[in-house]
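Continued from yesterday's entry.
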Amino acid sequence: MSSPTFTVGDRVRLQETPPYLKTAEPRPMLRPPQLVKPGEIGVITAAHPGGQWAVRFARGSFLFDSQQLEWVPPGVGE
């Protein structure tokens, strides 16, 4: 099964919460997973090596693997 392909600006839904969140900053920090709930919608802000994506949510920007995200069509969840 191939990894989903996203582009910067896509809206995505978090499918599963990882055991911790890694901030999408030049010097990343680990944060508690409760900051983003499964089902929450965010916007992709950057692509990172290894199939990771920086996603901006209401409580910050974090890195996620492609498999943890689901593309959200325009107009859904607004």
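--- second protein ---
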Amino acid sequence: MEQDSRPGLPPRKGRGAVTNNESSRFNLSSHEADGDWLDVRESLDDAPPKLRTQVTVEAAKSILNFNKSPDIPFDRSINAYRGCEHGCVYCFARPSHAYLDLSPGLDFETKLFAKPDAARLLRETLAKPGYRAAPIAIGTNTDPYQPIEKRFHITRQILEVMLETRHPIGITTKSNRVLEDIETLSCLAALDLTAVAISVTSLNSGVSRILEPRAPAPAKRLDAVRQLRARGIPVHVSIAPVIPAITDHEIEAIVDAAAKHGAQSVSVIPVRLPHEVAPLFEQWLEAHFPDRKQKVMAIIASLRGGRKNDPDFYNRMRGQGPWAELLHRRIAIAARKNGLDKARFALRTDLFRRPVIKGSQLELF
């Protein structure tokens, strides 16, 4: 599939990706959400039609994913949804939609999949005799509190299983919708079974709106930090990703705001552009920051060993070279200045109690 060569494609209101037209690793057919609108765009007098979110129920056979990556602090995770309506153009999970014969572009944020059997599948997994408890991460691929959570409540059901079984879980989100589960989270936190990471990439609502078009405004996320901490729930603020020449100047201000709202720690990750994310990101730059596109991509190349992306363990999270060194030095200084450099979130595993599955022999006892 050839990349669209037309310069300056207009942004889609309320969406992050500019098109569905990007290179595919799998030679899949091209898809355009809500029809081939690009083919007829020139004949339209008004703006392209509004893209509607479609949700497909997925009959998943399993829900717990295991990994052996040495540069992440967990070995298991749950993805309640595929795709993410937040529409963050930089999302490194976008390429996963290609496996579904869908585009990592607009399809990723408009054609979503929900797994309503997640809680049942999780209980069945935890009930297996050989299962050993360790922290589960949720929200590391797509956001567990994206807008469709209001309809499906899959994340809420997973948290209820965690509380029932006294199992540790770490949550990453950029949505204040996490507050809707604050009662369950508070109960989990009282047992040292949970911590929440809130992603804040910019304090500028205008930048946030085009970077993460359907995610809550930065002020709402910071208020979520405040409310979670008021209930004794451990909170980390993740400045991820940092985009050179667009958001990097805000690092110290974000750290300061995080501290004032009660966060206990902070971290940064420079932007990653795996597979189809790179051409989508470049189209986004052309649409929103054409004057800075070359500078942004040049700095990213310096971070990634001369490439648009570096998939190597450790380097992928930290970057390399002088720009990366300066980035991490800045966050370390800002964190120390605001007292956010000492918190450690150690979740307990010794409280785990295996669930009893209805109809099993254990139910007799």
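The longest strand covers residues 235-242. The chain has one domain: 54-342. Will compare against the first tomorrow.
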